[in-house]
């Protein structure tokens, strides 16, 4: 018998399928079944129903986005998987020590980390915040190329932050290009928190060539590299490769994925599921 609860679960699952298809452009049935923890026939039925509603296109073995993929604006991306990104942010915050110098990349997951950092330092009403888990920093030196990061931390007295200049990329809300590359080589950070739009067998990828170049330069200047990415990025392959999996020290994500866990074990990369 099908009740209200099962209908709600079906709608939630199909909403998640749409998010994955729209973010990746193309997704296989087997991937969706693994990510959602359901049988492949269930996924095929969901895809068929969504295809009838013209919300995606059913293909042999998977689904395609109705519209071509593109690099959506920051505000649009920020509305996706809010709770997952917040969980990732809290787990990342626990890896920032008092007095650390950190690099905070562009992207909505890193922006969520920035907001958690501000809350930990100032509290919701301007007083000292409580840690998300365990101890948290009191003073931090922040290097960033993201305007949103700088704005969130601008009036926090215990944060010293430096913004890399260069060519402004509107879709990413960040600075890239030769000036940013030259500037970042003047700094060393304890930890670089990096955002990506995909991780496949080819490695980490993003949508923009200049952003990929800057991320690589940042990694060269960091003692530790942590990639903060939600589960929708697993299996996705974007326009430009950033680096191989084994170049980073840790990945923080919001859901367990068997293939990702195996890849991290093989590469000697710490996997943190928030």
From TrEMBL:
Q: Which SMART domains match?
A: DeoRC (SM01134), HTH_DEOR (SM00420)
List the SUPFAM superfamilies hit by this protein, alphabetically. NagB/RpiA/CoA transferase-like, Winged helix' DNA-binding domain
Cytoplasm as a keyword of this entry, yes or no, is no
Q: Which GO terms describe its molecular function?
A: DNA binding; DNA-binding transcription factor activity
Domain named HTH deoR-type is located at 10-65
Instruction: Return the PANTHER family for the record.
Output: GLYCEROL-3-PHOSPHATE REGULON REPRESSOR, HTH-TYPE TRANSCRIPTIONAL REGULATOR SRLR-RELATED
Task: Tell me, in a sentence or two, what this protein's role is.
Answer: Repressor of the lactose catabolism operon. Galactose-6-phosphate is the inducer.
> What's the protein name?
Lactose phosphotransferase system repressor
Source species of the chain: Actinopolymorpha singaporensis
């Amino acid at each position: 018998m099908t009740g209200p609860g099962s209908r709600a679960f079906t709608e939630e699952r199909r909403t998640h399928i749409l998010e994955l298809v729209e973010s990746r452009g193309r997704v296989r049935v087997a991937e969706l079944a693994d990510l959602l923890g359901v049988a492949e026939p269930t996924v095929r039925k969901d895809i068929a129903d969504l295809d009838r509603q013209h919300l995606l296109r059913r293909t042999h073995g998977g689904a395609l986005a109705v519209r071509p993929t593109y690099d959506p604006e920051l505000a649009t991306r920020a509305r996706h998987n809010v709770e997952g990104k917040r969980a990732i942010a809290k787990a990342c915050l626990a890896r920032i020590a008092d007095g650390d110098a950190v690099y905070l990349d562009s992207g909505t997951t890193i922006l969520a980390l920035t907001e958690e950092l501000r809350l930990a330092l100032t509290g919701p009403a301007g007083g000292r915040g409580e840690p998300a888990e365990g101890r948290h920093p009191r003073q931090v030196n922040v290097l960033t190329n993201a305007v949103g990061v700088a704005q969130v931390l601008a009036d926090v007295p215990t944060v010293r932050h430096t913004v890399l200049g260069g060519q402004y990329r509107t879709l990413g809300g960040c600075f890239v290009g030769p000036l940013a590359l030259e500037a970042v080589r003047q700094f060393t950070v304890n930890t670089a928190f990096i955002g990506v739009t995909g991780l496949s067998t080819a490695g980490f990828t993003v949508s923009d060539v200049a952003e990929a170049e800057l991320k690589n330069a940042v990694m060269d200047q960091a003692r530790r590299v942590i990639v903060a990415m939600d589960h929708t990025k697993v299996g996705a392959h974007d326009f430009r490769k950033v680096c191989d999996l084994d170049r980073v020290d840790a990945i923080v994500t919001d859901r367990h994925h068997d293939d990702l866990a195996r890849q991290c074990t093989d590469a000697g990369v710490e996997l943190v599921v928030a």
